[in-house]
Amino acid sequence: MEPQKRRPPGSTVGGQFAGTSNPKSALELPAESNGAWPAVQFEDANWTPDPTIPYSNRERQAQTGAYRRAVPAFIAKADLEISSNLAAEIEDASSEIVRFDAEIGTALESYGAILLRTEAVASSRIEQLTASARAIATAETDVDPESRNASMIVANTRTMQAAIAKSDKLDEQMILGMHAILMAAEPDIAGKWRHVQNWIGRGDAGPREASYVPPNSSRIPELMGDLTVFMRRTDLPVIALAGVAHAQFETIHPFVDGNGRTGRALIHAILRNKRTTTASTVPVSAGLLTDTDAYFAALTRYRSGDLEPIISMMASASVRAVTNGRSLVTNLHSIRQSWDERLKARKGADAWRLADLLIRQPVVTRDFVTKELGVAVNNVNRVLLPFENAGILISSGSSSRGRRVWRSPEVLSELDDFARRVGRRTA
Q: N or C: which end of the chain has fewer CB within 10 A?
């Protein structure tokens, strides 16, 4: 939902964005629920567009006046009731994830790395950020990226890595740290709770026509503290916990930008923290991509107190993710095996280590190979040459910095095919 969110420009007044009012206490929140899941409440506020911004008269008039913004409930101790049918869905999905994680745990490390990247790509695609596998892999080698989107997707990959690496502590600092990595290109907002009003939907000058307006920024620290307490609960099925935590995070929308991608990275931090995954990254976002309308509708239903759609969506997306992930690993494994028959290199040579590296990093430079494999600079060409002779690697000339780049068309094609497959709706 991020691409529709608006970030109001201008100055702040008294800690609130100019044009907002705060008619209720910043700490006044709905009480925790006893029974049904607590629905989001709303409060009245007023908006006046920033007079220094040249909005049209129509837009200025439309965005002047009262609007409604969310007041999410505390959920740390809320009762979570799950129907028997949904419990069965969760159990099936959990079993699939655990089985797949065990399979990946016995495979080459390269497959775990590529699954993490595909999850970052799919999560970015939900936000309308797309790039070819070649552009993304090129950006990862520190060569000048072919597109801004590719750089943003690489940042998302690093966010996923941070989510997993720091998953032992499900707290606010972990979330802020993930966001700092994701939004490193925008240091003014990276790793910081927002101090302005944001909104999702129509309108550049204000939130009055928005489909959803998140809570006042003054509520964020307490809401996020409450959310992290919820995330550390041990009395709930992990997939249900991850689905609700993700939905609550998106409801709070604590950052100026990057909420969707950070919120989906949070899912993987929870799965790893609870030991549902130990070796792999299940591409859940790839599962969500098959029906993004249903995904956004489930988030909306959550705000009305209906938990089942987002939990069910998380379970079904996990099953699809395992199916997609298993297919990707199988196809990449076939490609890797075919290289064994084509490569002419002695046993134990660095060429075989490069073959494994190319599965997770299908675009390389001399500097990248030297860094990753520890090969002496004057020996790199000797490692790359068998791959060129076998047609496994193709040189793409020079980058804008004057460095030669090699790519594996087979791996890149498979990754692009995967991206196309997971975006299709399935019966």
A: C
- Dihedral over Cα of 276, 74, 308, 298: its sign: negative
> Whole-angstrom Cα distance, residue 318 to residue 173?
27
Would you kindly state where each structural domain of the chain is located, as residue ranges? 84-327, 345-417
From CA 75, how far away is CA 336, in angstroms rounded?
47
- Assign 342 to helix, strand or coil: helix
Per-residue pLDDT of 361-419, as tens digits, reads: 999 988 889 988 888 888 888 889 889 999 999 987 654 454 788 999 999 999 988 88
21 C-beta neighbours (distance < 10 Å), count: 13
DSSP 115-154: HHHHHHHHHHHHTT----HHHHHHHHTTSPPS-HHHHHHH
Distance CA 356, CA 219 (A): 48
DSSP state of 290: G
Locus of tokens 């609007």: 67
- 3-class secondary structure, 16: strand
Residues 6+ apart with CB under 8 A from 9: 50, 53
**Helical H segments across 253-349, by residue range:** 259-273, 284-288, 292-303, 308-342
Phi and psi based region of residue 392 (left: phi greater than 0; alpha: psi -120 to 50; beta: remaining) = alpha
Beginning with the edge strand found earlier in the chain, give each strand of the sheet holding 363-365 in spatial order: 363-365, 404-407, 394-398
Which has the higher per-residue pLDDT, 334 or 286? 334
Q: Tell me the pLDDT tens digit for each residue of 159-177.
A: 888 888 899 999 999 999 9
Considering only CA atoms, which of 259, 219, 268 is closest in space to residue 241?
A: 268
Coil, strand, or helix at residue 362? coil
- Strand, coil or helix: what is 23? coil
Nearest Cα neighbor of 246 from 290, 296, 293 is 296
Give the pairing of strands 65-71 and 5-6.
unpaired
Structural tokens at position 1: 């939902």
- Amino acid letter, 382: R
Q: Whole-model pTM?
A: 0.85
What is the rounded distance in angstroms from the CA atom of residue 281 to the CA atom of residue 286? 11
DSSP-derived pairing of the beta strands 12-13 and 16-17: antiparallel
**CATH architecture of the domain with residue range 84-327:** Orthogonal Bundle (1.10)
Was domain 345-417 assigned CATH 2.60.40.10? Answer: no
